[in-house]
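Reviewer 2 asked us to include a model.

Predict the structure of this chain.
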Amino acid sequence: MKRAARAFWLRSPGHGEIRDLLLPEPADGEVMVRTLCSGVSRGTETLVFRGGVPESQHSSMRAPFQEGDFPGPVKYGYLNVGLVEEGPPHLLGRTVFCLYPHQTRYIVPASAVTPVPDTVPAERAVLAGTVETAVNALWDAAPMIGDRIAVVGGGMVGACVAALLARYPAVRVQLVDADPARAGIARALGVDFTLPGDAADDCDLVVHASATEDGLARSLELLAPEGTVLEMSWYGDRRISLPLGEAFHSRRLILRSSQVGAVSPARRSRRTFADRLALALGLLADPAFDALVTGTCAFEELPEVLPRIAAGDLPGLCHRVLYGA
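Predicted model (structure tokens):
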């Protein structure tokens, strides 16, 4: 028996559409999930939407259940929460998270879904992929008790990192952003907020997530001697310049990248991707994360909404997509 479904596709850079499709009956070991909500990852998805994935990165940038190829047509996305309608008894009726694009129903291997804890509402669970990115970054950064830390860039990733750092003992955490409106988000997460020009320096660690040249340069300025900037921004096809002359060498500064595509080397021998995602979902029991969802639309509105997000007409953090019955 075929099941009807609808999916959002990027037809070509800047132009999205909703397509109808029919799903087969799930095979043994598979689940059929009815989507409850999905999330738009503003950084990566808007870059994909405008066709900004460099050709050299087309393979490494593929989402787990992507269809099509960059720059388009392509079905892309990875923040999906749904209800298992068919599948193994231990998953039937469970709310699950999956790295799946924006689609009303879908079939995946049962191993590809992670049950959402009862303490986490489905609407908040769409943040799991971003919190997972933050977990991996902190495994990479290995902050220590009493560290002086700045997070430069108060978007989804930066705010999630700041929220987790706020749980560390005796650390000084500042969320640094050029938009004064991000102060309210910082307050909800329990961290201090400051504009770039007012940020405290002498930092042991700076996590950079603003995806701007100015933000990365300011991150280097905030470091104490021998401090580390953990770079979480991805610039796609943009080239940036940095002041790597001046005091960069004499102060022995460190610039290190972090990326969620692999489990951090610090935990790779003892943690799997499934372990990391389960940890991220458990952390979302904290209602403070609700501050990171700043917009909502219906699934049918995505072709009109995504161009506005990509153009900056709908600013904010996570944009949640809701699905009807």
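DSSP finds eight helices and 17 strands in the chain. The longest helix spans residues 128-141. We have added this to the supplementary material.
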